[in-house]
Write the structure tokens for this entry.
Amino acid sequence: MSTINYQKYDAIGIIELDDQAALNALTPDGLIDLRNALIACQADDEVRVIIITGAGDKAFCAGANLKKTDPPEQSFAKSALSCKTIDSKGSGYTRLMDLSDLLIWKPMIAAINGYCLGGGLELAMQCDLRIASSNASFALPEVKVGSVPAVGGVQALMRAIPAAHAMKLALTGDRIDAKAALSVGLVSDICAPDALISESRKIAVRIAANGPLAVKTVKKLALETSHLAPADFILQSNMAWGLLRDTKDRIEGRDAFNKKRKPNFTGD
């Protein structure tokens, strides 16, 4: 039985991690289902924004399910040199948590309720926006058990929040609440637990109302060029502007602006 639920509401795809007995912790099979759901969202032209959340009110995701990720029989070297799907059955299930190879250019929102720990936080930090319920809490606790975040969690945290706060969290493994996460910029919004999905959908709807090609291009620029020197990222921005200049959506957007009406974007 899959631990991933998927529903579509107009232009919004909602992916729900659902293994509440294990605080929605991730298994190799669950990660494959998650990746397949994301691939389906990417391929569906009707979906313009993706929301990832956890079932129930106790956890978004508490990381890897340690009861279902037994120590491997083969060496790490052999696993690491295999493809992700094969490696997931060995020691490399954590590689499935790296979503970068899926090239998801549609915006992803993490709607975070309860615990967001370890791999759960690493998953949330791969989303473009993080919205927290007031009962949410966050940590990279790996150092407490003699390990490290395996999916770029330290590096992602350093990019997401000021270095001093990132290092404190990574080195202590301490957990912070939603208010602290908001104060350092780890999340953009806090809401009541029972309003989490509705508030996340409101933001998703506002994003989905914009030009789909423009939204995906903004995300692509943000992820691929922000590390470049100004001359280089300005060049890439201008190239992206040129790619969109003659699209039907940009023509529609300009016409709607001039006529003071709501644009009807089609993604063309």
Remarks:
- The radius of gyration is 19 Å.
- The first strand starts at residue 4 and ends at 9.
- Strands lie at 4-9, 12-17, 49-54, 59-61, 108-112, 115-117, 129-133, 137-139, 176-177, 189-191.
